[in-house]
Write a structure and sequence with these properties.
The complex is a heterodimer of chains A (about 375) and B (about 300).
Chain A (H helix, E strand, L loop, with lengths): L3 H17 L1 H21 L7 E7 L4 H12 L3 E7 L2 H9 L5 E5 L3 H7 L10 H6 L5 E4 L4 H8 L33 H31 L2 H5 L6 H31 L7 H25 L3 H17 L12 H8 L2 H15 L7 H21 L6
Parallel strand pairs in A: 1-2, 1-3
Antiparallel strand pairs in A: 3-4
Chain B lengths: L3 E12 L2 E12 L3 E5 L6 H8 L7 E6 L2 E3 L3 H4 L3 E4 L11 H11 L4 H14 L15 H12 L6 E5 L7 H16 L3 E6 L2 H5 L3 E6 L2 E6 L1 H6 L3 E7 L3 H8 L5 E7 L2 E7 L5 H8 L7 E5 L3 H10 L4
The chains are: A alpha/beta (about 375), B alpha/beta (about 300).
Pfam families (chain A): ABC2_membrane_3
Keywords (chain A): Cell membrane, Membrane, Transmembrane, Transmembrane helix, Transport
Family (chain A): Belongs to the ABC-2 integral membrane protein family.
Chain lengths: ~375, ~300
């Protein structure tokens, strides 16, 4: 029933239009390129050089050394110096600094009793009477900044006494697999594949079909023998290739610029990305049957894109989300794709290990295609 | 095959409360150009959409090329051509690319595609524009391309929805010549229009108003059967004359055409000129002459009955 020749005709027409539509063509290439650069360089979850203020009320040699070794961690940078905590508070409110370190007058005294100094085990009286050596006040509204400074809380001060570091035995030994240097790019770049594919695939397909309706071409098409499934297949195929080109750009450049490893096999990578591309395209088709014009299709794409960025595990860990949100996030193909692409690229997961996700993705696509075909009728009533 | 290409019996289509097409009976013979004449919103497009199987009738029957619609809509698509009101081929493709697309969509055998396109380019005088993007074609050229693409598969039945609303009179002339050539080759056409000169060229016409057929027949028949006489009035103060006559019994309509006022008087009045003269005795310098009715008069008198 389905005629390959008619599909080829639609496909050829679509390619001709794509070739002349410089903007879309440029978007296929430029979106992944620019976003990779932006996200790869810009997103950094390991905070460095947070601007903070220093209020040194002691002004002893010890307090100056303390400030120096705090700065030496590179987590913070003292950009302002104040005489009183009040001034520091104002500076935080005015967002000139994100936090302030207040070194109290009796810092030397506190210092001697601090367990962090590592002068052997403190005796019983010291244990009860010892107090923190200094005080951080932090603009806690940004949890990332706050936790970066909180990480300084138990900072060992052994260095100050010229004692060898690591005298303290940690409670746990931690070995970091797959990203031992804790570089954000390693996690971001594969995830970016999911975000960019979600955006471009849904937008391009929905816009491509809605455009036919907007420009009146659909009125002509429904009067020809071409079937709706033939129109859809013919329109989708060019974008499958566009999607693959984008994946190649992101992962290839990610590898070159950000040294993101590609540990998994290319076969598994191709299967996983193709599945996701087709799932996204089917979402695009559903959108196209609902949207009346290109603006609406754009709005609906954003509606799907935002949760795909924020809830899929691209930016924030999936495990941290409350149960109901996890259920919603599970309905997004991007969530499953994040798992799969990171699995293949970073952990060399095999297709068998990802069978559940793969089956889900196939199910989603079949459902989407069926919904779109049923909705997309050649009738007007 | 029978001589009747399209026939409908009490064809009705409602959209919610509104009846778009009301009990329409049509019979369109092969080799005819059949026109639907009516104002915007009179049900022309809805009727055509039911005839092509895009809309399901609320009630009534439609037979097209011997098959019942809308069940046979898909198989019939390759025997039907439909030219949309607004240019609906791709503006970002060239003339040749669009024709090629149409040829492939309609399943024209691969080896004859090239020859057919050349033939159409020649017939429709598009040879100089083959590689031009359709977005940059003039309205007339676009119209020619639309027609060429619509007839690429040599349809037996052609629907044209207000085909020449956007082109100049010269192009309209040649366009109609081409339609008659196609009829000569055996095609039947259904044309919707609200232009009198276009309607006048049809073999047969149906005047539609509010979804119902008000009159049908050949333009000649319609003019001969007009239930009114036409009187033209020449002279000064025509606007005042018009207001004087509007609403008077037996005066069906008045319309100013340049320096003349065209008045339709009901046929039941034996002396239309005398009657008008009596009505206008306060005016001086008026010349009244009886005229042959034209299609517009038919249209006006057919569509005004609704209000009465």
């Amino acid at each position: 029933m389905i005629s390959p020749r008619r599909i080829a005709a639609v496909l050829k027409k679509e390619l001709l239009q794509l070739r002349r539509d410089r903007m879309t063509f440029a978007m296929v290439i430029m979106i992944p390129l620019i976003q990779l650069m932006l996200f790869g360089y810009a997103i950094n979850t390991n905070l460095r050089h947070v601007p903070v203020a220093l209020v040194d009320q002691a002004e002893t040699e010890l307090s100056r050394t303390l400030a120096q070794i705090v700065q030496a961690t590179q987590v913070v940078e003292f950009t302002e110096v104040f005489a009183t905590p009040q001034e520091a508070e104002i500076a935080i409110t005015e967002a000139r600094v994100r936090a302030a370190l207040i070194i109290p007058r009796d810092v030397d005294n506190r210092f001697a009793r601090s367990p962090a100094i590592g002068l052997g085990l403190p005796n019983a009286t010291d244990q009860t009477s010892s107090r923190p050596v200094a005080h951080w006040i932090v603009d806690g509204s940004d949890t990332m900044v706050a936790s970066a400074i909180k990480s300084l809380r138990a900072m060992p001060l052994t260095e100050m006494m010229r004692l060898p570091p690591n005298r303290l035995v940690p409670t746990f030994e931690v070995t970091l697999y797959f990203n031992p240097e804790q570089r954000s790019a390693v996690n971001i770049v594969p995830g970016l594949v999911g975000v960019i594919l979600t955006m471009t695939m849904i937008l391009f397909t929905s816009a491509a079909i809605v455009r036919e309706r907007e420009r009146g071409n659909m009125e002509m098409l429904i009067n020809t023998p071409v079937k709706s499934s033939e129109i859809m297949i013919g329109k989708i195929i060019p974008y499958i290739f566009a999607g693959l080109i984008q994946v190649a750009i992101i992962l290839g450049l990610g590898h070159v610029l950000f040294d993101v490893p590609i540990n998994g096999g290319l076969g598994a990578l191709l299967v996983v990305t193709l599945l996701f591309i087709i799932a996204s395209l089917s979402v695009g088709l559903v959108v196209s049957t609902l949207a009346k014009n290109q603006l609406q299709s754009m709005q609906m794409t954003v509606f799907i894109l935002l949760p795909s960025i924020l809830m899929s595990g691209f930016m924030f860990p999936f495990d941290g989300m409350p149960q109901p949100v996890q259920v919603i996030a599970q309905a997004l193909p991007a969530t499953h794709f994040m798992d799969m692409i990171r699995g293949v690229v970073l952990r060399d997961a095999s297709l068998f290990e990802m069978r559940e996700q793969i089956l889900w993705m196939i199910g989603f696509t079949v459902f989407g295609l069926m919904a779109a075909t049923l909705k997309f009728k050649k009738r007007l009533d | 095959m029978t001589d009747v290409v399209v026939s409908t019996r009490s064809l009705t289509r409602t959209f919610g409360e509104k009846t778009a097409v009301d009990n329409l009976d049509l019979e369109i013979q092969t080799g005819q150009i059949y026109g639907f004449l009516g104002p915007n919103g009179c049900g022309k497009t809805t009727t055509i959409r039911m005839l092509t199987g895009l809309l399901t009738p609320s009630s009534g029957e439609v037979t097209v090329l011997g098959k019942s619609m809308p069940q046979a809509a898909e198989p019939l698509k390759s025997q039907i051509g439909y030219m949309t009101q607004i240019f609906s081929y791709y503006r970002d493709l060239t003339v040749r690319e669009n024709l090629k697309f149409a040829a492939e969509i309609y399943g024209i055998p691969a080896r004859s595609v090239k020859g057919r396109i050349e033939e159409l380019l020649h017939t429709y005088d598009l040879t100089t524009n083959v590689d031009q993007l359709c977005g940059s074609l003039s309205g007339g050229q676009r119209q020619k391309l639309s027609l060429a693409a619509t007839v690429i598969h040599r349809p037996k039945l052609l629907f044209l929805d207000e085909p020449t609303s956007a082109v100049d009179p010269e192009t309209r002339r040649t366009f109609w010549e081409q339609l008659f050539d196609l009829v000569d080759e055996g095609a039947t056409m259904i044309v919707s229009t609200h232009f009198m000169d276009e309607a006048e060229r049809c073999h047969k016409l149906a005047i539609l108003q509010n979804g119902a057929k008000k009159a049908d027949g050949s333009p000649r028949q319609l003019m001969d059967n007009l239930q009114a006489d036409v009187v033209e009035i020449e002279g000064p103060e025509l606007r005042t004359v018009k207001h004087q006559l509007d609403g008077k019994p037996k005066v069906l309509s008045t319309a100013q055409i340049g320096s003349r006022l065209r008045v339709l008087v009901d046929k039941s009045e034996p002396q239309p000129v005398e009657m008008l003269r009596a009505l206008l005795n306060t005016f001086s310098d008026l010349t009244l002459t009886q005229q042959r009715p034209n299609l517009e008069d038919v249209f006006v008198s057919a569509t005004r009955e609704q209000k009465a």
